[in-house]
């Protein structure tokens, strides 16, 4: 499994157990899913055989689903990954640890919106800083890719892989200097 955070804000996700493009590619090699910034947040659709298929529901929908689901594992994993990716030494600053808040509604949007806790209160995730949104998107895709991998592995009756590679292109281009100096990816050795 591979997650590649591109410098342009997009992400690529490759999972060897899932052939995302079976209808359009004549080879047996699966290709990565490429998520634009908007697709990360609102879902990735693909036309397969004339039918629109959702390959991802998107961060906003999945976060709310995971948060309100009786099955707590995806949301608990998401919270752990957010905590591990939180900026170092800022627990008492204005940003603090990255923690989910209570979902809220916004005017002119019929969806429930995830919130993130800050020392000054909870804010809808879409109004967070660009760096926070980028880290939240990475955390989401780590958990989403893992959950999808487990589901697809079960469907094809193969054991899930135990490792994931995460590549971040030009991390300094998008993140707070404290994040740039932090070696946070090794912290993600979370047992699944």
Gross morphology: globular
> How many domains, as an integer?
1
- Cα-atom radius of gyration: 17 Å
As an assembly, this protein is: single chain
Instruction: For the record, give the distance between the C-alpha atoms at the N and C termini, rounded to a whole number.
Output: 14 Å
Q: What share of residues is helical?
A: 25-40%
Across the major sheet, the strand order is: 3-2-1-11
What value does the average pLDDT take?
85
The fraction of residues assigned to DSSP E strands is 15-25%
List low-confidence stretches: none
Q: Mind describing the biggest β-sheet?
A: 4 strands, mixed
SS content category: alpha+beta
Tell me the number of helical segments per DSSP (H or I, 4 or more residues long). Answer: 5
Q: Count of DSSP E strands?
A: 11
What's the order of the H and E elements?
A: EEEHEEHHEEEEEHEH
Please explain how this structure is put together.
There is one protein chain. The chain is α+β, with helices and mostly antiparallel strands and 192 residues long. The chain has one domain. The protein contains 5 helices and 11 strands. The chain has helices spanning 37-42, 59-68, 73-85, 130-155, 177-181, and strands at 2-5, 11-14, 33-35, 44-48, 51-56, 99-100, 104-106, 109-113, 115-118, 121-124, 165-168. The protein has a 4-stranded mixed sheet. A 3-stranded antiparallel sheet has the order 6-9-10. Strands 4-5 form a two-stranded antiparallel sheet. A hairpin with a 2-residue loop joins strand 4 (44-48) and strand 5. Helix 3 packs antiparallel against helix 4 (130-155). It is globular. The chain starts with a strand and ends in an 11-residue tail after the last helix.
């Amino acid at each position: 499994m591979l997650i590649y955070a591109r410098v342009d804000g997009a992400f690529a996700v490759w999972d060897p157990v899932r052939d995302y493009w079976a209808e359009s590619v004549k080879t047996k090699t699966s290709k990565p899913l490429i998520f634009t910034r908007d697709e990360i947040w609102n879902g990735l659709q693909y036309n397969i055989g004339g039918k629109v298929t959702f390959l991802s529901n998107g961060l906003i929908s999945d976060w709310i689903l995971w948060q309100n689901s009786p099955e707590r594992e995806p949301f608990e994993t998401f919270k752990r990954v957010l905590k591990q990716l939180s900026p170092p030494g800022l627990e008492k600053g204005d940003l603090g640890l990255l923690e989910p808040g209570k979902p809220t509604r916004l005017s002119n949007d019929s969806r429930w919106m995830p919130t993130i806790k800050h020392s000054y209160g909870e804010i809808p995730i879409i109004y967070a800083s660009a760096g926070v949104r980028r880290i939240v998107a990475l955390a989401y895709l780590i958990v989403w890719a893992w959950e999808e991998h487990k589901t697809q592995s079960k469907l094809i009756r193969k054991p899930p892989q135990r490792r994931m590679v995460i590549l971040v292109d030009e991390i300094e281009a998008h993140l707070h200097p404290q994040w740039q100096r932090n070696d946070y990816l090794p912290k993600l050795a979370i047992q699944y």
